[in-house]
Input
Amino acid sequence: MTAYGSECFTMNEVNRLKILQDVIDGRLTTSLASQRLGLTDRHCRRLLARYRESGPLALVNRRRGLRSNRQLLPGLAELALGIIRDNYADFGPTLACEKLAELHDVVQAKETVHQLMVRAGLWIPRKMRAPRIQQPRYRRACVVEECLRCRDAAAPLGLTECQVQRLNDSRDSQGLSTSTLALLSSPLMICKVLSRPIS
Output
């Protein structure tokens, strides 16, 4: 059904009709009318010529009731969906689109295939999926990290891990200088895992 078969007007078309009638009656100029309508002066003159020639129905959108230029050809959507259901039901829209073009010569845009698959229930958009439940990651034991820190602290002093262990166990500080004892008793050098801190 085309625009000429229907005699209904939208509010924009009624407003356009009133302004163009004011131009014909001489109350408005075409430049002022084009500013009010948000059109170019040239298009406003074109509408005036159509209005004078065919009356108010000439102002109705001529595309009304016609098929969109971007609409899929009849039967193409069903063909693509049938191929996807038979062969690529577990594919995502992008890969399904590529396979349709590569193997079946059905060339469609990725978004078109995406919308077809969503409408058919073959694909769930990310926004509609159930949220993933992230398992809590518990803290790891820090034994290895503390041991490595203790080893690194003992290395500049010329001590081995065994000597630090022995020092911690026996608290034997007779063979060490006072500066070494001060370093070992500082909070950064204390080994928390091997034994209790040195006083």
Summary: Confidence is low (pLDDT under 50) at residues 1-5, 185-199. The chain is about 50% helix and 0% strand. The chain has three domains: 3-59, 76-126, 143-185.
